[in-house]
Amino acid sequence: MSVIVELALFPTDKGSSVSPYVARAVRIVRDSGLPFQLGAMGTCIEGEWDAVMAVVTRCFKALAADSGRVYLTLKADYRKGPAGRLEEKVRSVEAKLDRETL
Description:
Elements: E1 2-11, H1 19-32, E2 36-38, E3 43-47, H2 49-64, E4 70-79, H3 85-99
Antiparallel strand pairs: 1-3, 1-4, 2-3
Helix pairs in contact: 1-2
């Protein structure tokens, strides 16, 4: 069983450039050891529910520690079955792009 979440969070009270804060959260994700993909509008993380949610909580607390307001969005796809869906979902779509015209 695994969940893939897409997490986006940033402080809203730190000016127009919040990349240092985003990097702080991504470092927490990276250091967790869970598979992840950094994107322009969010970071996808895969793992067991409790492990992923613990990382989400750590990211939130790291930003909330010195921010008066934190914006956070979270999308989740839970599915029974093996892990490894994070990369497989992308490969599946890319394979179809290579052989089909829509």
